[in-house]
Amino acid sequence: MKQVGTFNASYGVDKFGLKDLGTVFYNLHAPMLYEESIRRNEAVIMPGGPINAETGIHTGRSPKDKHTVRDATTEKKVWWGNNNALTPEQFDVLLQDFRKHAEGKDLFVQDLYGGADPAFRVKSRVITEFAWHSLFIRNLLIRPDKTELASYVPDLTIIDLPSFKADPKRHGCRSETIIALDFTRKIVLIGGTNYAGEMKKSVFTWLNWTLPEQNVMPMHASANVGDDGDVAVFFGLSGTGKTTLSQDPNRILIGDDEHGWGKEGVFNFEGGCYAKAIRLSREAEPEIYATTERFGTVLENVVFDTVTREPDFDCEEKTENTRVAYPLDFISNASRTGRAGQPKNIIMLTCDAFGVLPPIAKLDPAQAMYHFLSGYTAKVAGTEKGVTGPEATFSTCFGHPFLPLHPSIYGNLLRELIAKHSVDCWLVNTGWTGGKEGTGRRMPIRVTRRLLTAALDGSLNKATFRTDPYFGLAVPTSVPGVEPHILEPVKTWANKAEFAATAKHLVDMFRKNFVEFESHVDAKVRDAAPFSRIAAE
Ligand SMILES: Nc1ncnc2c1ncn2[C@@H]1O[C@H](COP(=O)(O)OP(=O)(O)O)[C@@H](O)[C@H]1O
Ligand SMILES: C=C(OP(=O)(O)O)C(=O)O
Ligand SMILES: [Mn+2]
């Protein structure tokens, strides 16, 4: 077996039971990964230097194909209501089949860290079939230096073989695609999908499993920090604006997607960003745009001219979910350490395609918990097959696909931290205004940014607030630089009766969704539900 690159020679992939391989490439940097991915026809080079890969049928994550091994350790701890189980025997067969499938192949290994805080990091060795996947995960996670690599022994091993096809009968899964996590053996197996995001979200899932026990809150959230050291955390589901809004020219970016919050403050799990490329605009998002024109960036499913290779970011022919993955140091105002102090503000982002939620509202601690456990956003028509109008999604803790433990565990951790550090919480709607999707328009980024600036600099706390009649939230009546009517959704709708009906419909969906959490929270949080608060007042 030929081994190339820098690594701990006494800890090769043979330790993982991989044998009869072709060449194993360890910790290659971008130049050699470019050469290998071009040689293998995995990707093309784009103007300015990024590579661009196509992922075929899987252009997003496959949450339904994610499985967790149910054994004596996980049995009592995992939230099985949310996680598909595999038996240890099924996992064993799968692991053997992965090893067999790897035989004769060249493999790429990256020895990385998940977690900028050394006390809480997971040493994640990611073994991939594709050179471009190796560059992707190298961009996304934290890269140890050369001396650290010499003694690197992984805590967690991820093996990602897109050409592997799972067999539901043999492996206990659902389709040819599988993401199997064995928390006890510290192994993740990814097969039957080319979507690179599965790898990074597996590390996130691992940290969601291990950190609560150490009193660290794992968060599906972006984060940035102001000149005064004031940290802002932005929770939100996919497409709500975590990446876009954490990138703020006046603040230092900590990270765009996954963070931990412990005694010492907030820390990034990652060392890179994974931004959406669809309709990416040089004017609205100059820093992110600039990463698409340089060597080392990985583009996913971006449509381009076959001769000039010019990208067409407006084209969603392959998918809405086109992506750009780059290391944090491609952003000029990004943190070098990935660590910062205690949050002063928490923003819960939602993309309300019903156009009912106000563009910003202040949340009291009980309302913050209610909205955290609800995890509301809406899917827009067209992003998934069969979605023709806005569709409500409730994903608890703003990330149910990544939660091995019951939401109440994360909820309680967050609640204590918010109380301890007197954090101000806000709900921000980056979705529709002036009507629901179809009639209205998306909230201008300029407006959202203006509202966030006012929240983060403390000035919004001094505003006059009205109470939203449906959600019971405190909504500012005026914010400098923002047209006042946009702060009151009903005023932006031409048809007031339709607004009332749509608002009521959304309230009903919130209430129905929260039923499963009612027994896990106290009366204050239950009373933070839309409408019930109004009845109580
Ligand atoms: N008001 C707004 N706030 C945030 N993003 C917006 C807004 N209007 C449009 N967008 C677009 O919505 C998308 C938000 O996606 P992104 O920031 O990648 O979300 P996430 O990181 O939470 O998945 C981007 O494509 C952005 O350009
Ligand atoms: C990487 C992802 O995260 P987000 O869309 O939240 O940026 C994803 O959902 O695959
Ligand atoms: Mn993002």
Features of the shown structure:
537 residues; alpha/beta; nine-stranded mixed sheet; eight-stranded mixed sheet; 15 helices; globular; binds adenosine-5'-diphosphate; binds phosphoenolpyruvate; binds manganese (II) ion
Brief synopsis:
The chain is of the alpha/beta class and 537 residues long.
Oligomer: single chain
**What is the helical fraction, as a range of percent?**
25-40%
Shape: globular
Bound molecules: adenosine-5'-diphosphate, phosphoenolpyruvate, manganese (II) ion
Regions with little confidence, pLDDT below 50 for 5+ residues: none
Q: What does the radius of gyration come to?
A: 23 Å
Structure description:
This protein is of the alpha/beta class. Helix content is 26%, strand content 25%. The longest helix has 19 residues, at 496-514. Strands 1-2-7-8-9-11-10-5-6 form a nine-stranded mixed beta sheet, with helices on both faces. It has 15 helices and 30 strands. The chain is globular and about 70 Å long. Phosphoenolpyruvate binds next to helix 7. The site of manganese (II) ion has 5 residues, from helix 7.
